[in-house]
Amino acid sequence: MRVEAITLRELRMPLKHFFETSFGRSDSRRVLLVTVHCQEGEGWAECVAGDGPYYSCEWIETAWATIRDHLAWALVGKNFQAASESAASMARVRGHRMAKAALENALWDAEAAARQQPLWRLLGGTLKEIACGVSIGIQNSQAELLDKIATELASGYRRIKVKVKPGWDLEVLRKIRERWPEILLSCDANAAYGTIDFDHLSRFDEFNLLMIEQPLWEDDIFCHAGLQRRLKTAICLDESIRQRRDAEQAIELGACRIINIKTGRVGGFSESIAIHDLCQQHGIPVWCGGMLETGIGRVHNIALSTLANFRLPGDVSASKRYWEEDIVEPEIDITPQGTIPISEQPGMGYKIKPDLIQKLTVRMDTIGDR
Question: How many domains does the chain have?
């Protein structure tokens, strides 16, 4: 594949409902889409960097500038036998994994389309359907949260994850368990606690949780190991796992029993597969987390989730939970059994909606010659 040009687009998309975590509340998304134009065709991906540097030090402005001024020029004019080769071409730029992931994943999409092969199969996936869970943000009241959980369970979702933070945790989990003692339940702290909270976090063991996700600092693995020794509940690491080496350290130290793989967070499909394979070797189950993606990012998550060690329901839920109209067709939906069947169509398996994308675009830039 010869890369001829790369197009960046920023879209503005309102969420159907606000989404709140320990970082704050979001009512809309600034969405960064990347199109890689190759001689053989084009590929699309979504950069999952957020509106501000809260989940990660990356955000949409750093991603846009880094792709435009540095990463795109590492690819434009180059020939690649496979999309996975592109990671080495971008390695000179330190960090900026979300920006790198968008470019690499767009090339994977282009390669799959050129080979007339489903993206999930090119990645090495084997699962013909994936199990789906939902992530429910902090609500205005506990009653509102319980109503949302009831709605998602009625839709068929197989795992409920709720966001927690100091002051919105034990009583919330207790209310959920009183109403639904048997559901598969987890919580996500997004690094909201510290070592002074170890005794408090030990009380989470009362609630028979599948996991507590990223309770401590995003740059810490050592203290998570100390906390995991205190807890019966499995710790799942998210923000702390930026690359395969981090996963190796976490497994060696016993810092977690589950790992969340977000392809944007770790720099692309190649690193995601490497982490998946490492965890599979060590008997550590993985699952795919979400970043409020549009359909383009969501279908990439679906493809990744077909790898064999994605043994837990991920956050790959239906388009209608977030958007009045998604930018892919058919829109992503789940079966009444809480699964998504995997398409055999080449590439992503879904078609983009160019007219809607153009309507939502607020800025665009193309690097290279088309």
Answer: 2
Peptide bond before 354: cis, by omega within 30 degrees of 0? no
State residue 3's pLDDT score: 96
Whether 173 and 107 map to the same domain: the answer is: no
Q: State the pTM of this model.
A: 0.95
Same domain? 172 vs 296: yes
Instruction: State the average pLDDT over residues 185-208.
Output: 97
Environment class of 24 (CB within 10 Å of its CB; exposed 0-12, middle 13-18, buried 19+): exposed
162 and 98 fall within a common domain: no
Query: From the CB of residue 337, how many other CB atoms can be counted at a distance below 10 Å?
Result: 10
pLDDT digits (tens, 9 = 90+) for 131-168: 999 999 999 999 999 999 999 999 999 999 999 999 99
Domain hosting 185: range is: 121-341
Residue that is written with structure tokens 């009831």 in the block: 150
State whether 262 and 328 are in the same domain. yes
- For residue 50, what are the β-bridge partners? 59
CATH number for the domain spanning 12: value is 3.30.390.10
Q: What is the pLDDT of residue 260?
A: 98
Same domain, 27 and 132: no
The span from the CA of 331 to the CA of 36, in Å, is: 23
Q: Give CA–CA dist 297/33, Å, rounded.
A: 9
Per-residue pLDDT tens over the stretch 295-331:
999 999 999 999 999 999 999 888 888 888 999 999 9
Q: Catalogue the active-site residues.
A: 163, 262
Give the three-class secondary structure for 6: strand
Domain match, 196 and 217 both: yes
Write the single-letter amino acid at 96.
H
